[in-house]
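#data-curation
PF: Archiving a pair of folding outputs for the training set. Convention for this channel: one message per protein, sequence first, structure tokens after, nothing in between. First:
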Amino acid sequence: MTGVAVGAVPWRVLNQIACSPSTVTWEWLRSEKDSYRQTMPALHGNAVWQPSPSVKQIGACIPKMPTSQQQVTLSLKVATYNGLALNDEGVSGFSTSARTTRLDMQFHREQIALIGIQEARTMEGCRVSDNYKIYSSGFRQCGNSKNFGCELWQTLPFCTMPDGRKIGQHNCKITITGQDPKIMVVYFEGPLSLQVVVAHAPCVSA
């Protein structure tokens, strides 16, 4: 057997290519669905695209819109309530339970605009009762029992401005900015900016 020299193998360079973080960063493209891969330029040999950030800058002048802020005093009645489960057994999905209906009547009779409820133990999502829009953070399943769960009840409209205008849901963009079974943060953006936090109060057993 006669050996024939073919030159040195550049192991260092090959190792650098194999360990390159750019290759690892874009490796997820290889496992994407065909419909997604078709949006990328075609490559041969099952290669992977490694896009680099663009250095192009677009010179655009965006005029700043004048904004004005003012502080106002408004009329708003709020309340807190420990629901101790508003999810009646036998009522599925987002159907309104009998307890929710009774509470709706009581809160509305007292003209309460916003109610923060703890221990609601209802499904995550949004539902409507006779007089309120209800936002739910969802409960925590612990074995066979449901625990925690925050809700925000918002009547329509929920406040009155000094000039007599009624502000309701149709006047505001409402965003859930944070939630888990023990806390929910709701942001109202419109004629007024309002952030509402519904949370479980500390107690020995919770």
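PF: Second:
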Amino acid sequence: MMMQQTKVGLNVAAVAAAAGLLVGSMNMSSAFAGQAGRQADPEAQAEGKKLGVGDKAPKLDVEHWIKGDKVSEFKSDNVYVVEFWATWCPPCRTSMPHLSELQEKYEDKNVRIIGISDEPYDKVKDFLTSEDWPEKTQYTLATDPDRSVFNDYMRAAGQNGIPTAFIVGKDNKVQWIGHPMNMDEPLAKVVDGTWDPMEYQRQFERQRQAAQARQEVFQDLQSGNEKAAMEKLDRLIDEGNTDLRFLKFQLLISQMNKSEEAWQTARIHLEESWDDASALNEIAWFVATNPQVKERNLRLARMAALRASELTNYEDANILDTLARVHHENGEHDKAVRIQRMAVEHAEGEQAREQFRMWLDRYMEAADDNQEDGN
């Protein structure tokens, strides 16, 4: 099966992953959504030292500097991006060319981008010298297998998902924490001196509080108290955490058997996410493939996947793969073949390309069978 097609059901662990509470449960589709695992983990912060916006950035005690010069200290009047990634992480790989573009853009403005893995040296070195990754990674890269830097940054900041980037300002203090694909605006403002870290700190604190509430939702689900979990979800959604509406839909459709309310929730989520390609892709994939969705609304899934494809100019391999799957499930096998060929063309890395090809073969076989049947 394709990398993104590893989700086979919605149990408590899957619900927790959807809420951003667990690490390592991302499939390719949800991972490229860029939101899975993005929330702060209050338990991680409680166990040791904390790191937040406005705090002095810890020194980079990195074990292996693989590409670029070692950063022994943060220099005043320089801006640094400290980003955590891994070779196995699809959204990390997707972010790499963009990080290279940002490094080139700010090269003459004393900006240094540093990507840090925690994998063995040989694994990271082999990855960075394979295929076209040397050209795609034009910034400093390192790995720290003892995870000391991970603990100083990720764990201290309560972050439990990668990729995650920390912008360190000219005063050597943390200015911003988030997904590297979302940091263009804050990085530009940090560089030109117009960034307001205090306002962002307030936003970050609200996110932390929402993450704690998500943890409570997970605990209710784990104990079987679905009513309490739903009440907390509704409160969080009313407070502005509209991304959790998708989790509400998942619970209603797969665990609570409330089909009518579930699809109403899905339609609202579709409207709210109309300009968010990743969220739309997540909706479409879940509706089209999850075995616990007994009555599939493929029309809704197709609307979501088509819109996501339009937003990404039909160039995102994982979104194209989702659209092909929706067409296939809807019996539109020729369309599935055409779109899946595009997914193969735009795939990042040979492993993903091979997986996409495997499903292209299945769609082609289904199309041939359809023609033989005279349909």
